[in-house]
């Protein structure tokens, strides 16, 4: 073996060293960007929580960061929010709206997507184009006609009326998202199920549903967040109802008329953020896997 093979030229060594340095620099830059995004996401939540546990006098005279330097924390604001601002009832109403909306959206979306991918029927192409068209249809143009219809059939001021509205306008996106994933499932799996004598229902429950769990979880997270954070629809369709207003409607009213100060309002706001925050953190891996799975076709 030659000496050149045993002792690489100095130029090659410098090139490898430069390549490793660039990789380290890029990795460092990526870490800095990720940390910056993480701080930009966490700081408002931390500020909201610290503001909710500070006395009203401190909140009015200094910034939230002073709670770290001079900690004087109390849960009294949460007691006021739950007692006088009736946040518990609002949280219950929001859950009564968001949970059924999420479940119905996921179930109907996966059934509709499977039908469009696997079942051949007249008008399937036209229905697919209609779903795409509904994705860009502004829901606001349907508010007045649906309000009149709800008043006629007695759904105005009721939670089922909000279910129908939110599910109806989330369903096109759900079917569109799940259809891409179900279309990417290898045809050989369906053929094997047919050879084993499995019915369409058995194929759907034994093959499609287990494989589609991550993307169904992703759709469920998005549907829950959209329903939970919705202000306009509950405000219009639950007007005059004897039930406690959803949390978004309650907070919007408290911003303008609360006489308790910022502390209870901050506590109520943090409680409204806590449930979606827990959902996102606990199901983050399913969300990422589901979105990536829906983006891959083959």
From TrEMBL:
TM spans (from-to): 28-50, 95-117, 129-150, 162-182, 203-226, 232-253, 265-287
SUPFAM superfamilies from the UniProt entry: MetI-like (SSF161098)
Single Gene Ontology BP annotation: transmembrane transport
Keyword annotations from UniProtKB, A to Z: Cell membrane, Membrane, Transmembrane, Transmembrane helix, Transport
Example of a GO cellular component annotation carried by this entry: plasma membrane
Subcellular location: Cell membrane
Record keyword Protein transport present: no
Residue span(s) of domain ABC transmembrane type-1: 91-283
Main subcellular location of this protein, as a coarse class: membrane
Record has Acyltransferase as a keyword: no
Assigned protein family: Belongs to the binding-protein-dependent transport system permease family.
PANTHER family according to UniProt: ABC TRANSPORTER PERMEASE PROTEIN MG189-RELATED-RELATED (PTHR43744), OSMOPROTECTIVE COMPOUNDS UPTAKE PERMEASE PROTEIN GGTD (PTHR43744:SF4)
Descriptive protein name: L-arabinose transport system permease protein AraQ
Organism: Aquimixticola soesokkakensis
Phylogenetic placement of the source organism: Bacteria, Pseudomonadati, Pseudomonadota, Alphaproteobacteria, Rhodobacterales
């Amino acid at each position: 073996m030659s000496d050149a093979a045993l002792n690489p030229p100095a130029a090659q060594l410098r090139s490898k060293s430069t390549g490793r340095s660039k990789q380290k620099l890029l990795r460092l830059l990526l870490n800095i960007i990720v940390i910056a995004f993480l701080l930009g996401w966490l700081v408002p939540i931390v500020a909201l929580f610290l503001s909710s546990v500070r006395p009203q006098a401190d909140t009015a005279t200094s910034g939230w960061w002073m709670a770290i330097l001079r900690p004087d924390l109390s849960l009294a604001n949460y007691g006021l929010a739950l007692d006088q601002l009736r946040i518990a009832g609002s949280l219950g109403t929001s859950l009564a709206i968001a949970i059924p909306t999420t479940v119905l959206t996921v179930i109907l979306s996966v059934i509709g997507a499977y039908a469009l991918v696997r079942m051949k029927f007249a008008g399937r192409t036209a229905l697919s184009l209609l779903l795409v068209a509904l994705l860009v249809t502004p829901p606001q143009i349907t508010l007045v006609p649906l309000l009149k219809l709800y008043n006629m059939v007695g759904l105005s001021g009721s939670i089922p009326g909000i279910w129908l509205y939110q599910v109806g306008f989330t369903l096109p996106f759900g079917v569109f998202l799940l259809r891409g994933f179900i279309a990417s499932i290898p045809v050989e799996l369906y053929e094997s199920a047919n050879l084993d004598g499995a019915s369409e229902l058995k194929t759907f429950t034994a093959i499609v549903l287990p494989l589609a769990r991550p993307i169904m979880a992703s759709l469920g997270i998005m549907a829950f967040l959209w329903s939970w954070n919705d202000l306009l629809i509950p405000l219009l369709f639950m007007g005059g109802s004897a039930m406690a207003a959803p949390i978004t409607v309650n907070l919007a009213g408290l911003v303008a008329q609360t006489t308790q100060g910022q502390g209870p309002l901050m506590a109520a706001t943090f409680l409204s953020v806590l449930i979606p925050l827990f959902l996102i953190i606990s199901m983050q891996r399913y969300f990422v896997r589901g979105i990536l799975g829906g983006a891959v076709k083959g």
